[in-house]
Amino acid sequence: MNRRSFRHLLPKTLSLSITLGLGLSLAEISFATPIDGHNLADDKVVAAYFAEWGIYGRNFHVKDIPAEKLTHVLYGFIAVCGPNESLKKANPQGYSALQRECSDQEDYTVTIHDRFAALEKSYPGDKWDQPIKGNFNQLANMKAANPHIKILPSLGGWTLSDPFYYLANDPQKRAKFVQSAVDFIKKYDFFDGLDIDWEFPGQPGANPDLGKPEDKQGFTALMQELRAALDNLSQQTGRQYLLTAAVSAGPKKIASIDYSQVSQYMDYVFAMTYDFYGGWDNTLGHHAGIYAADHEKVPQYNGHDAVNNIIKAGFPSDKIVMGVAMYGRGWKGVNGSLPDNPFTGKGGGPLPKNTQQGTWENGVIDYKGIEKYYLGGVNGQGINGFKYYYDEKAQAPYVWNADKGTLITYDNPRSVKAKGAYALSKQLKGLFAWEIDADNGQILNAMHEGLNSDGKPPAPPKPDPDKPKPPTPNPDPGDDDKPKPPTPDPDDDGIAEWNASKVYTSGDKVRYQGKPYQAKWWTRGDQPGKGQWGPWKLLTGQPDDDKPKPTPDPKPTPDDNDKPDDNDKPNPAPDPDDSDKPDTGDIKDWSATATYIKGNRVKYNQVVYEAKWWTRGDEPGKDQWGPWTRVDGSPDPDKPNPDPDPGQPDPDKPDPDKPNPDDGSPNTSGKYAVIGYYMLGPDEINKYPAVDFPVSNISPEKAKMLTHINYAFIGINDKGQCDLLKGANEQKSAEVFQLLTNLKQYNANLKLMFSVGGWAFSNDASPTANRFRDAASTPVTRAEFARSCIAFMKKHGFDGVDLDWEYPRKQDANNFVALLKEFRKQINQAEKASQSDYQLTIAGAGGAFFMSRYYHLLDKVVEPLDYINLMTYDFNGPWQGVTKTNFHAHLYGAKDEPKFYNALREVQFNPPKTWEEIKKLFPSPFALTADAAVKQHLIMKVPRNKVVMGVPFYGRAFRKAGTGNYGLYQTFNTQKGDPYRGDPTWLVGCDKCVERNEPRIATYADIKKMLAGDFGYKRHFHAEAKAPWLHNAKHNLFVTYDDKESMKYKTDYIKQEKLAGVMFWHLGQDDQESTLLKSLHNGLNKK
Predict the structure, then answer these.
(1) SS3 content of the chain, % helix, strand, coil (to 5)
(2) Would you give the DSSP letter of residue 457?
(3) C-beta of residue 660 within 8 angstroms of C-beta of residue 654
(4) In the chain, where are the structural domains located?
(5) How far apart are CA 302 and CA 391, in angstroms?
(6) What is an example of a GO molecular function annotated in this UniProt entry (predicted)?
(7) Per-residue CA distances from 716 to 226, 536, 753 (Å)
């Protein structure tokens, strides 16, 4: 290939004098630096990130950076001291290294991360007594040899972004950070400015619980103050310093930065136009495409839309540097695709790690590895069973092994040249790449060639309106970035008529009943004009497209049980149009123990009623606000209630525009659920009955106080079926189940449930976290999971299933609803077949952080359920960034307690709520409390007679707590994480804590003994929070728990709010003499 020779646009001779904080000096240097024979017009940027850790396994060092081909090098990453939980979770070793660096620094100050890599590793030419070696010395040498190059420290990164969320909105913390960042580049003065890599302002990043709307202003303030500080430094040194940031390409994250304001402070942004799709979930797509593909799952997940969105947000195009990927993202086990289009299928997990081939982490592979092991050379067409493809529309390559189901999407020289031409056509500043050690030179050279092209990028081919496109599923995207529909062209001619059997994708146009429509996403069979939330947008007479519009979730395919199934109904409902006064002969009498859903009809006192929503045990005719309405509209015979006047609201139909906390059907029966969990782990099962709390400890008196016992836990095997937890003996398990069943001899109404999952099995960091996700992912897997659980239920004599998925992610929410619908359908079928009464419950989040993942669908989540057991405990503990003692299960908030950002403010409601409504419904900051959790459910119209409030039969202990205020709201120092690895003896008086090797959790039985002994504990009670605590001044201990006094307030609350009842964790933690179970039972049943 012929290349035009050129020289980088710098003076032929430059006198440069830089005094470095490394004890080095760059004196008078004369140079003329070529960059691989390319002439970058208009001072374009060609930048690349250099990863600090590349010096290890990849064996890529600063000396290997092709500096002559780059204008900028970004050093990744420099850390910030302070809360770094994301790093701790992802890389405990790296976290420990950072803690050592921060041991003598204040929080929110800048620091190196890996001291050895940055400052200590020796290279040829280093002297033994040289104070600074490592990467920093090598970078200084590189700059001395290539004075044209700009070197920036990149502060933050994916797992190092947590501190930004805490400092950006706090003027004092922000000032501390700004000053330390400037001090850092003064000390290491080969750096030419600062690059901020906060992932992501206003939105969750590696830590799903961080990100709030206020970050938008915080990011602006941070940029403003950094710019001012750098300008001040310029006055001192006479040098110009750059201020840049790596920014997301996702629509929602773009909207979380005020680009029109920050543009005045920043030199440019590095738009990360890659990682649109990847192995973190099984949704397939091009991870670095320029344009949207035909199979695109999320319309604006491409470089073109990202660039346009940033420009539309008010940021100049000549300050945008577009991202290039020097790596690919891959999936294994792709299935369900059309033969020639893997993207129509679903991934089976990330490509496995193989460092020899350049896969240094699961799902990610270096470009040079792709070229060598999958293409067979830069122009190769595929080897080892792989075939090379290029998507002309998206301008994106991929390799595909159909036999093995392995797919890799990446950037190659062709797509990168197209990006360079695209950047010229949009008048962008240039291109940058992540990361330089993954390239073999091909990608970097292509960046130059693209930026030296004629500036005419390949245009995506226009779709053939008559050519059906392959059907694609519509999974929820990973971070819920739901873009606006594309702007229509009302003057388009020659639009074909809508065809109910055809597949349409985003942007396709049709005509229906004389009107033109445009598809907002994939659709087939959805009639245009049926509703504003559907997949079609009318192209004429529409409001201003520049105004924000709500975008609904993608419509599920028919397989997702979106269509009602007769089997979902316990009792078939007659057609209400058959007669004004239906024949009551075919309608069954109302039963207090039967389950009814909306539309079911019953006969009671010779009057026909129809259910307005799910109900069980609510007597028809008792209450006009209840779940029953008379079919013929006449008043109850025992209660005068004239028909409403024509045109007046029907009292049986709640006003949808008026908030009504009783929309969810209060519990008026006077009977309350008392649900207790009984837990045995696999080890305890296997040594049963030699355990702390065998079934025999559940006395007849206790059995009579309970309505339900939930056995915990059952797992999900690798086939997606209900199964015993790994290691649990089958015969021993069956014996325990039988013993539980025998308790019915003391209480014939006792329900025995089994709970599937649990925190250890299903939390995001668990090795089995994908079991629930996969089981819920398709109609087939949902049906099999439900079938296996119901078979398990019947085999062992249980009365229902309790699903304890902690917790579905946002992208799992729709599947979660579909899973519960499938369970309800199959349970109803099982009930009909066996004439039994089976129940379905879930353990629901009590805190807003996890609740927010599925809150927008909460009413649909609860619809198929008998109860939702709210885990209204564990609100506070040593795992939090807030390092002050607090109650873990208090009923109400106290004015002095540490508050939290309300994550429910981030929920995308449909229909959308105004900001004023959101502020009123979800105050922030707020206290995590039981009352808050209940009210948050009632806001979403969850029926009160389904809400079960959770209480703990255990306390949480904090070590090294401050002594002020009797230990309450004081700083503490207690080990985080599981399992516990510290000293098990520090909770004095808790012998069982030592046996369990867990002093952070004390059972109620333990606490009673601790109080009774001479250990120095004093009980206190908070009148505002309605919560007790223990303080041990001698040993600086704080214990938060529930006791009889707090339980009395909680049972009164349950009755006052007309909730379904109470749930507790767990039976084995109760004190056998002075039982909390008895307090709950008496409190709920006392008139």
Answers:
(1) 30, 20, 50
(2) P
(3) yes
(4) 45-272, 499-527, 595-630, 671-871
(5) 13
(6) carbohydrate binding
(7) 51, 39, 16
Q: Which residues pair with 396 in a beta bridge?
A: 391
C-alpha 433/C-alpha 439 separation (Å) is 10
Q: Across-strand partners of 384?
A: none
The pLDDT score that the predictor gives to residue 518 is 79
Q: Which residue has the tokens 């066996």?
A: 834
User: What pLDDT sits at residue 590?
Assistant: 80
Q: Are 490 and 461 in contact (CB under 8 A)?
A: no
- Cis before 276? omega within 30: no
Closest CA to 86 of 845, 813, 765: 765
Architecture of domain 671-871: Alpha-Beta Barrel (3.20)
Nearest to 838 by CA among 785, 802, 870, 863: 802
Enter the tokens of residue 995. 């046996």
- Beta-sheet pairing, 396-401 with 387-391: antiparallel
CA-to-CA distance for 1027 and 1042, rounded, in angstroms?
7
The class level of CATH for 595-630 reads: mainly beta
Q: What pLDDT sits at residue 529?
A: 78
Task: Round to whole Å and give the CA distance between 889 and 1076.
Answer: 15
CB atoms inside a 10 Å sphere around CB 382: 15
Give pLDDT, residue 670. Answer: 79
Q: Residues near 285 by Cβ (< 8 Å), separated by ≥ 6?
A: 276, 277, 293, 295, 296, 297, 298, 301, 343, 409
Token code pair at residue 497: 């008529």
Q: Provide φ and ψ at 753, rounded to 5°.
A: -115, 160
Segment 170-193, tens digit of pLDDT: 999 999 999 999 999 999 999 999
CA distance 480 to 459: 28
Would the pTM of this model clear 0.90, i.e. be above it?
A: no
Q: How many CB atoms lie within 10 A of CB 978?
A: 13
pLDDT tens-digit profile of 202-220? 999 999 999 999 999 999 9
At which residue do the structure tokens 């192209």 appear?
A: 539
How far is Cα 812 from Cα 774, in angstroms, rounded to an integer? 10
Q: What is the DSSP letter of 120?
A: I
949 and 955 in contact (C-beta within 8 Å)?
no
Query: Is residue 377 packed enough to be buried (19+ CB in 10 Å), middle (13-18) or exposed (0-12)?
Result: exposed
Please identify every stretch of the chain with a pLDDT value under 70, giving residue numbers as ranges. 1-42, 455, 459-494, 501-507, 520-525, 530-535, 540-586, 593, 595-598, 612-616, 622-626, 632-664, 880-882, 1087
Residue type, 813: A
The tokens describing 892, both together, are: 């109400």
- 1049, containing H or E segment: helix 1044-1056
- DSSP letters for 788-828: HHHHHHHHHT--EEEEE-S---GGGHHHHHHHHHHHHHHHH
CA–CA separation, 266 vs 1002, rounded Å?
Answer: 53
The domain defined by 45-272 folds into TIM Barrel (3.20.20)
Catalytic residues: 199
Q: Which one-letter amino acid corresponds to residue 820?
A: L
CB atoms within 10 A of CB 659: 14
CA distances from 463 to 179, 466, 469, 519 (A): 54, 9, 9, 13
Task: State the residue for tokens 């501390």.
Answer: 176
Q: Which helix (H) or strand (E) holds 182?
A: helix 171-187
Cα maximum dimension of the chain: 104
Contacts for 558 with CB less than 8 Å, ≥ 6 apart: none
34 is written with which tokens?
């070529």
Q: Which two tokens stand for residue 401?
A: 């092994």
How far apart, in Å, are the Cα atoms of 880 and each of 392, 794, 874? 48, 41, 11
Instruction: Establish whether domains 45-272 and 671-871 are of one fold.
Output: yes
Q: Is 1075 exposed, middle or buried (0-12, 13-18, 19+ CB in 10 A)?
A: buried
Which pair of tokens denotes residue 695?
């079934």
